[in-house]
């Protein structure tokens, strides 16, 4: 049996993490990893391997977000501190006060389980009050980022848990953690948390929508590749420096739009979408002109988040067009 608690595979896991975070202090991160290994040995092989695997997965999530050395160390250390196999004083002594505060903050946020689960009939005002309280509990926003990554890893491994636990965790994720990710502007975490919660709270609807989208996957990829090439060529001909990419689908957002508009999947433009990244605001409007010059704009499908910005300095233009082959396309 191959486990992360085997020395060879543990070191390979650590090396992979350090390769993802070259800007971090490798010595400190390695020390945190080894402290985690030592503190879990007395808990038994199964618990130790689960701790190592989950900690490594969460650390990789944060490395993708380019978080710092203290955050990665906190991820590796918070579980044994919460379990009582690693003293908080040892964290302060070895890794410094800042890391110790992060660890303590993550452990405190676990008090979410002391509150009533916010189910389907919950008042959104109560959920919002709880989100505000959680934000107020922490002095460092990195605590929330660590907790979001921990929750995402928990959601990724939720399939094998009992049904009642799956629903409880999914409800917490939908009502508390996904909105927190949205509030902080961590879109990749928000989208995945929402999709995973949707999967466990509305399993039949989720599977139906996933199958419908999967049946069209090859055709959609072909279509988006052609659209991307067309946009890149036209932007270049206009002298605009831009990066064009297709956007991954997010089942929960598609489903919510279907519910809100009372329409079927064929009428939702989000299933075919491209993103144009430019360096300056003027480039956004110029790129918009390119898109509208290529394809007919769809009325009432335009949002200007530059003139009317969202939270967290999110600035973009959203439009929808009748693209090639008469298909709706979001840009």
CATH topology of the largest domain: Hypothetical protein af1432
Please bin the fraction of helical residues: 55-70%
Major β-sheet strand ordering: 3-4-5
Mean pLDDT: 82
Global outline: globular
Query: In the CATH hierarchy, what is the superfamily of the largest domain?
Result: Hypothetical protein af1432
* Secondary-structure element pattern, one letter each: HHHHHHHHHHHHEHEHEEE
Model description:
The structure is a single chain. The chain has 331 residues and is mainly α. It folds into two domains: 7-206, Hypothetical protein af1432; 209-330, 2-Layer Sandwich (Beta Polymerase, domain 2), CATH 3.30.460.10. Helices cover 64% and strands 8% of the residues. Strands 3-4-5 form a three-stranded antiparallel β-sheet, covered by helices on one side. A two-stranded antiparallel ribbon has the order 1-2. The longest helix has 22 residues, at 163-184. The protein is globular. Residues 1-5 and 116-121 have low confidence and may be disordered.
Sum up the structure in keywords:
single chain, about 325 residues, mainly alpha, Hypothetical protein af1432, Beta Polymerase, domain 2, two-stranded antiparallel sheet
């Amino acid at each position: 049996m191959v486990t992360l608690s085997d020395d060879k595979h543990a070191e390979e896991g650590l090396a992979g993490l350090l390769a993802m975070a070259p800007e971090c202090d490798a010595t400190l991160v390695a020390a945190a990893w080894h402290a985690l290994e030592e503190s879990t040995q007395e808990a038994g092989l199964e618990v130790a391997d689960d701790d190592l695997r989950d900690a490594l997965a969460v650390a990789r999530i944060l490395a993708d977000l380019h978080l710092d050395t203290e955050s990665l160390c906190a991820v590796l250390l918070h579980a044994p501190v919460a379990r009582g196999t690693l003293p908080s004083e040892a964290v302060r002594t070895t890794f410094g006060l800042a890391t110790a505060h992060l660890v303590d903050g993550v452990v405190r946020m676990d008090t979410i389980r002391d509150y009533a689960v916010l189910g389907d009939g919950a008042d959104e005002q109560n959920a919002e009050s709880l989100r505000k309280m959680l934000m107020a509990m922490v002095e460092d926003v990195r605590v929330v980022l660590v907790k979001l990554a921990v929750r995402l890893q928990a959601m990724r491994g939720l399939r094998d848990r009992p049904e009642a636990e799956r629903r409880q965790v999914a409800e917490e994720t939908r009502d508390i953690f996904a909105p927190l990710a949205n509030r902080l502007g961590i879109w990749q975490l928000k989208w995945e948390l929402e999709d995973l919660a949707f999967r466990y709270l509305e399993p039949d609807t989720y599977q139906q929508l996933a199958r419908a989208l999967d049946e069209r996957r090859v055709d959609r990829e072909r279509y988006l590749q052609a659209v991307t090439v067309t946009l890149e060529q036209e932007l270049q001909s206009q002298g605009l420096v831009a990066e064009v990419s297709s956007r991954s689908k997010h089942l929960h957002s598609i489903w919510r739009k279907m519910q809100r508009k009372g329409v079927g999947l064929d009428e939702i433009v989000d299933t075919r979408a491209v993103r144009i990244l430019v360096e300056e605001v003027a480039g956004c409007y110029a790129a918009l002109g390119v898109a509208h010059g290529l394809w007919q704009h769809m009325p009432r499908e335009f949002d200007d988040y530059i003139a009317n910005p969202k939270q967290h300095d999110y600035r973009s233009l959203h439009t929808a067009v009748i693209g090639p082959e008469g298909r709706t396309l979001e840009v």
